[in-house]
Amino acid sequence: MSTSRTAAPPAALPAALPPAPPALRRAAPVLPVVAIVVMVALPVAAGSNATAADAVSGLVVLWALLRTSLRARRPLTGTAAVVLGLPVVGVAVAAGGAVTPGDALTGLARYLQVFVLVPVAVVLLVRDRRDARLVLWSLVGLALWEGGIGVHQYLTATGASYQGADIRAVGTFGPSDVMGMSTVVAFGLVAATGFALKARDRRQRVVAAACALVLLVPLTVSFSRGSWIATAVVGGAQLLSAGARRAAKVCATVVAASVVLVGGVGVGTAALQERLTSITRVTDAPDQSVIDRYSLWAAATGMWREHPVTGVGLKAFPAHRDGHASLALSAGSDTEGAGQGYRRQPLLSPHNMYLLVLSEQGLLGVLTVAGSWLALLVCALRRLRRAERAADCAVAVCGLLLWQLVDYLYSDIGGPTTVLTAVVLGLAGWWALAPDTADTTAPASDTADATARASSEVPG
Fold first, then answer.
1. What are the structural domain ranges in the chain?
2. How does the average pLDDT of the chain come out, rounded?
3. For residue 456, with 0-12 CB atoms within 10 Å meaning exposed, 13-18 middle and 19 or more buried, which class applies?
4. 337 DSSP β-pair partners
5. Are 312 and 359 in contact, with CB atoms under 8 Å apart?
6. Angle at CA of residue 155, ends 152 and 170, nearest 5°
7. What is the pLDDT of residues 252-303, one digit of tens each?
8. Contact present, 316 and 113 (Cβ < 8 Å)
9. Cα-flanking dihedrals φ and ψ of residue 343, to 5°?
């Protein structure tokens, strides 16, 4: 006797996911670069050398290589390959002179990440000025976030210790990286200034100008002299690029805002005034930080004199420091506050990127590493003269590159924000070296933009 079984109805297929918005689909290739910027905002444990942003940057490099290989086209021009790949020569030679194999591997990986691999990935993923604007605005957003935290630290005395008071704004970077927040805020300020001066859309100019004025406050309370100097130099250069009339208007606005801040809000404290005056007091009664810096600079030049061609080797500055530094050099700097206890932080670099390269990589490193930066700057400024439709991106990107090169007179590689330097170099490489950059008013540029917009609206 057979039994009949009723067949079960077929399981309902899951509903198809709704298609992504056209704008999101169009921006998808460059979103990994934006993710690097976002990850910088995550707090880093004290003493940790690995960050989430570094991990994401490695994934971005792999994604850029995979995407480029799938598209099966030449990724870089010959000029771009030479300029962006030039640091490999000096870094590789200096790695052979490292004190230990571990120092050679970690130093080589870090230099290649910051000065070669991530910049190349950014050049490959940033396709046009809309992608560049997205990355630049993400820098502004990160600056506003870190700057807001920094101002709160200053007002509530919960920041890093400065002259016995916990008032130094450091954002999420802690007292062990007091330059972190000021670097992020300066990047956002420079990018916003470029948009405020050159953006074609009036609403974008107004928003960017407001962001730039707001970011002046956290930059001020960061007490970072190097960031102040670099921002002043770049701000002046950006204003000159906009013309005398607009420069006068912006200067008047900045002066008025400064009067309000100092007179009304009370930002101009005695500590801030002392910090400002210390910039010019480099030979007449300098503070200990200035003495330490000069001692470290002298030690770096002494190492170079003994090893002029290839330097003492990657990450070898600490091992040779005491043999070249004067007795005026202190053992380290005291850090505390912003949620961390007292810590003595050793001085393991000259706090000058050019002298660090000179001492560890010699003249070969200066010609290849610093030469690559100089070539980027020259190419970017040459293209800046004929930029019109992308003038806002051009002024912002050139300003960021110039800021980094000026700031390297007072800082060097290291810290959670180092990966942002790689992003800035990548943006500069896109503007200076990418062959398809839409930077002119030629009709082909408008046609390309219209084609890109139309293709992004086709359902995929």
1. 53-60+74-444
2. 82
3. middle
4. 160, 340
5. yes
6. 50
7. 776 676 666 555 555 556 666 666 666 666 555 566 777 888 889 999 999 9
8. no
9. -150, 140
pLDDT (average), residues 354-375: 95
pLDDT at 424 over 50: yes
Strand partners, 172: none
Q: Are residues 112 and 91 in contact, defined by beta-carbon separation less than 8 angstroms?
A: yes
The confidence score (pLDDT) of residue 281 equals 60
Three-state SS letters, the chain:
CCCCCCCCCCCCCCCCCCCCCHHHHHHHHHHHHHHHHHHCCCCCCCCCCCCHHHHHHHHHHHHHHHHHHHHCCCCCCHHHHHHHHCHHHHHHHHHCCCCCHHHHHHHHHHHHHHHHHHHHHHHHHCCCHHHHHHHHHHHHHHHHHHHHHHHHHHHHCCCEEECCEEEECCCCCCHHHCCHHHHHHHHHHHHHHHHHHHCCCHHHHHHHHHHHHHHHHHHHCCCCHHHHHHHHHHHHHHHHHHCHHHHHHHHHHHHHHHHHHHHHHCCCCHHHHHHHHCCCCCCCCCCHHHHHHHHHHHHHHHHHHHCCCCCCCCCCHHHHHCCCCCCCCCCEEEEEECCEEEEEEECCCCCCHHHHHHHHHHHHHHHHHHHHHHHHHHHHHHHHCCCCCCHHHHHHHHHHHHHHHHHCCCCCCCCCCHHHHHHHHHHHHHHHHCCCCCCCCCHHHHHHHHHHHHHHCCCC
DSSP-assigned beta bridge partners for residue 20: none
pLDDT at 175: 83
φ, ψ for residue 50, nearest 5 deg: -100, 135
List CB contacts of 37: < 8 A, sequence separation 6 or more.
135, 138, 139, 142, 420, 423
**pLDDT of amino acid 460:** 32
Mean pLDDT computed over 373-380:
94
How do residues 1-32 score in pLDDT, each as one tens digit?
Answer: 444 455 555 555 455 545 657 777 777 889 99
Q: What pLDDT, on the 0 to 100 scale, is given for residue 40?
A: 94
pLDDT at position 44: 77
230 phi and psi angles, rounded to 5 deg: -65, -40
Residues belonging to the chain: 460
pTM here is: 0.86
224, 410 in Cβ contact below 8 A? no
pLDDT in tens, 88-112: 999 999 998 898 999 999 999 999 9
Q: How high is the pLDDT of residue 39? A: 95
Please answer whether residues 168 and 159 qualify as being in contact, where contact means their C-beta atoms are separated by less than 8 angstroms.
yes
